[in-house]
TrEMBL record:
GO terms for molecular function: NADH dehydrogenase (ubiquinone) activity. InterPro entries: Complex_I_Subunit_2, ND/Mrp_TM. GO terms for biological process: mitochondrial electron transport, NADH to ubiquinone. The chain crosses the membrane at residues 7-24, 30-48, 60-81, 87-108, 115-139, 145-163, 184-211, 217-237, 249-271, 283-307. This is NADH-ubiquinone oxidoreductase chain 2. Its main location: mitochondrion. Belongs to the complex I subunit 2 family. Its EC number is 7.1.1.2. Residues 23-204 form the NADH:quinone oxidoreductase/Mrp antiporter transmembrane domain. It catalyses: a ubiquinone + NADH + 5 H(+)(in) = a ubiquinol + NAD(+) + 4 H(+)(out). GO terms for cellular component: mitochondrial inner membrane. It is found in: Mitochondrion inner membrane. It is a multi-pass membrane protein. It comes from Salinator rhamphidia.
Length: 308
């Protein structure tokens, strides 16, 4: 799948988020996001078949629109010092469009459902690091917009749960799941715990996609249970961290209802997925790849006990 020329694109995709994370200048941060985006696009077109190329073009158009809107809003706010509500909301909306958050979530299930597993790993993980870092910096600079972002994050968890229950393909469900988990990460960008949640989510996601590609249904069943946030699995620790951080926020009771409702909705389709893979499992071996995944979940439990 990978030739020597494609290593360059993969390197660009890795360097882009690093530039965004390490820069304090908004233009350099924006350029880092676009560098990662430019590195990703050729990798998307490696898939075989017209569907993969079609969703690649759809993803390109949406991200290009979001990048242009983000740049214009940034110029008005940081260069021309026009810190009006319109431009700040425009910047937040452009990041929502990039990340697949409410109200810019509409493209995620259709794009993810047309990609192969490797492309899903790229789109749902590394390319979100830069926008989330940018959003976290904005929240540090403009605390007056915390309620807006908390509402958008909570609505994303609900929308992700509703869309997941209306999907019939595993990839589309994973796309809806990404909307819900991105909502939780957005909450973390305001109250804290953003990178811990992102690390746990991406670890579980990558392991889930590896098990799916290898048709290891017993491990897939456990992986989806972990992604649902059921105790004592790994994602439960991450969600509990966000909830405890939100309790120290003013009006926390008002903002915590949406993500909790979204978690219940997401739990429904995660249980459906886990049960369907459980029925497709002919036998549960005593030692398998799922053992390592259980060890990872146990590590998360101990992390929560000793470091929260």
């Amino acid at each position: 799948m990978f030739g020597a020329s494609n290593v360059l694109f993969l390197l660009l995709m890795i360097i882009g988020p690093i530039i965004t994370l390490s820069s304090s200048n908004w233009v350099v941060s924006w350029a880092g996001m676009e560098l990662g985006f430019v590195g990703l696009i050729p990798l998307l077109f490696l898939g075989v078949g017209s569907v993969n190329k079609e969703v690649g073009m759809k993803y390109f158009c949406i991200q290009a629109l979001a990048s242009a809107l983000l740049f214009v809003s940034g110029m008005m706010i940081f260069s021309l010092f026009q810190k009006g509500v319109f431009w700040v909301l425009g910047m937040i909306f452009s990041l929502c469009l990039k990340l697949g958050l409410f109200p810019g979530h509409f493209w995620v299930p259709s794009v993810v459902s047309g990609l192969d597993w490797f492309s899903c790993v790229l789109i749902l993980g590394p390319l979100k690091i830069g926008p989330f870092a940018f959003l976290s910096n904005i929240m540090a600079w403009m605390p007056s917009f915390h309620p807006v972002v908390l509402f958008l994050g909570g609505m994303s968890t609900v929308i992700g749960g509703v869309l997941g229950n209306n999907q019939t393909s595993v990839r589309a469900m994973l796309g809806s799941s990404s909307i819900a988990h991105s909502g939780w990460i957005t909450l973390g960008s305001v109250v804290g715990g953003l990178w811990l949640y992102f690390l746990f989510y991406y670890l579980v996601l990558v392991l889930s996609l590896i098990f799916l590609s290898e048709l290891d249904y017993s491990s897939v069943c456990i992986a989806f249970l972990s992604m649902s946030g059921l105790p004592p699995f790994l994602m439960f620790v991450a969600k509990l961290k966000i909830v405890t951080m939100m309790m120290g926020f003013s009006w926390w009771m008002l903002f915590i209802l949406l993500p909790l409702a979204g978690s219940v909705l997401s739990l429904i389709f995660y249980l459906k997925l886990s049960y369907s893979f459980y029925l497709n499992t002919k036998s549960w071996p005593s030692i398998s790849g799922g053992l390592g995944f259980m060890v990872v979940n146990c590590v998360g439990i101990f992390w929560g006990v000793f470091f929260m």
